[in-house]
Design a protein that fits this description.
Layout (H helix, E strand, L loop, with lengths): L5 H4 L5 H14 L5 E2 L11 H11 L14 H15 L9 E4 L1 H13 L5 E6 L4 H8 L3 E6 L3 H14 L6 E4 L12 H13 L3 E5 L25 E6 L12 E5 L1 H14 L5 H12 L3 H23 L12 E5 L9 H12 L1 E2 L1 E2 L10 E5 L4 H16 L1 H14 L1
Parallel strand pairs: 1-10, 3-4, 3-5, 5-6, 6-7
Antiparallel strand pairs: 2-8, 7-8, 9-12, 11-12
Helix pairs in contact: 2-12, 3-10, 4-10, 5-6, 5-9, 7-8, 11-13
Bound molecules: pyridoxal-5'-phosphate (PLP).
Length: about 400
């Protein structure tokens, strides 16, 4: 048989796929699944953004190729957002690239920056593209345990000492997907100092910059004095404006890195459909009460989830930001692990979550619960979980018998 393609061998099947397969089978059998598995915003995109897209689409020129690094108006709007929100000045021409969602931006940044064998420092657990974007680009990942931001930074120093060649890129991502943890400006100061000392570039993914629930909006790494000399930030409109399917993100900061990304993109794409870019600029420049509304919905769901699951016997720490809760696997299922727990939860309770191990080995012991169902359904899920936990011994015994019989 022909051996598997070189690159494909480096991309293990998504662990989350195993739960998705069960979900599809149960749904085909007519089972109602309460789906906290994927981070897919379920709210409508605000009306004024949709209207702007429709209006622009009527222009006979709208269907032409656009600009691969984004139209000037959108890059200007992105720079405006950084000034307003973080007090960071960016040159829209040289320090801002509009991307086809932040995932594309991140993956092509990896292509632009990586030589075969380059070592990249990546948190674990992490959003999969953080490691696999670089693996696809021929890099080597130095996974650093990141159960907390402090643990991550301490691990970075150790990783630098023991990697050959020394790491070339340091990845940061707060608020974190999956752990929902946040950091303050002091953390970024320390990270930038560390990166500077060891001659690493920094890529910071802040896709959840606007989804926060207390009075401390997440800072940007670019607020650190001199950060622009070595860092770029990846940001997204997907969550902020419930525009995940529109595919609009940005890479901003260091001009040399932005130019490298622009070069790669100039070979690969012609930019998003112009009306989408015009509407994205309208989102950033227009009224921001829709952002507050979206944030409020996630916050109420978070409170309902934490309260109702606690009543059901599952203590889930309240996430300070992001659209996820990072929930410890309930005691009785600890030994079974996050994947088996997730499979049993969907089979027996009709509740889908993402097993923590899908985000890296250090995600074991947890599952990620997305705040992507309404409060009524969250309460229903909690009732199902209560019954599930009450029958834990019986469910586990049955699962073990089934596995032994296979
Ligand atoms: C940390 C993080 N970065 C990036 C993305 C991708 O966002 P986008 O839709 O902009 O590609 C996600 C989506 O879930 C995410 O969690």
């Amino acid at each position: 048989m022909t051996p598997e393609f070189h690159r494909i061998r480096r991309l293990p099947p998504y662990v989350l796929e195993e739960v998705n397969r069960i979900k599809a089978r149960l749904r085909a059998d007519g089972v109602d699944i309460i789906d906290f598995g994927m981070g897919n915003p379920d709210m409508p995109t605000p009306k004024h953004i949709v209207e702007k897209m429709i209006e622009t689409a009527r222009d006979p020129k709208a269907g032409r190729y656009s600009a691969s690094k984004g139209i000037a108006g959108l890059r200007k709007a992105m720079a405006g957002y950084y000034k307003r929100r973080f007090g960071v000045s960016l040159d829209p021409d040289s320090e801002v690239i509009a991307t086809l969602g932040s995932k594309e931006g991140f993956a092509n940044l990896a292509q632009a920056l990586t030589a075969p064998g380059d070592v990249i420092v990546c948190p674990n657990p992490a959003y999969p593209i953080h490691a696999y974007g670089f693996i696809m680009a021929g890099g080597v990942i130095r996974h650093v345990p990141a159960q907390s931001p402090e643990e991550y930074l301490a691990g970075v120093s150790r990783a630098v000492k023991h990697s050959a060649p020394p790491p070339s890129v340091l990845i940061l991502s707060y608020p974190s997907n999956p752990t929902a943890q946040c950091v303050d400006l002091d953390f970024y100061k320390e990270a930038i100092a560390l990166a500077r000392k060891h001659e690493m570039l920094v890529i910071s993914d802040i896709a959840y910059s606007e989804i926060y629930f207390d009075d401390n909006p997440p800072p940007s790494v670019l607020q650190v004095e001199g950060a622009k000399e070595i860092a770029v930030e990846v940001n997204s409109l997907s969550k902020t404006y419930a525009m995940a399917g529109w595919r609009v993100g940005m890479v901003v900061g260091n001009a040399r890195i932005c130019a490298a990304l622009a070069r790669v993109k100039s070979y690969l794409d012609y930019g998003a459909y112009t009306p989408i870019q015009v509407a994205a600029a309208a989102a950033l420049n227009g009224p921001q009460d829709c952002v507050e509304e979206i944030r409020g919905i996630y916050k109420s769901r978070r409170d309902t989830l934490v309260e109702s699951m606690a009543r059901a016997g599952w203590d889930i720490p309240s996430p300070p930001a992001s659209m996820f809760a990072w929930a410890p696997v309930p005691e009785k299922f600890r030994e079974a692990g996050s994947l088996l727990f997730s499979k049993l939860l969907i089979e027996e309770a009709g509740v889908a979550v993402a097993p923590g191990v899908g985000f890296g080995e250090y995600g074991e012991g947890y599952v990620r619960v997305g705040l992507v169902e309404n409060e009524h359904r969250i309460r229903q899920a909690a009732r199902n979980v209560k019954k599930f936990l009450a029958n834990a011994d019986e469910i586990l015994a049955r699962a073990h018998n089934n596995m032994a019989a296979q």
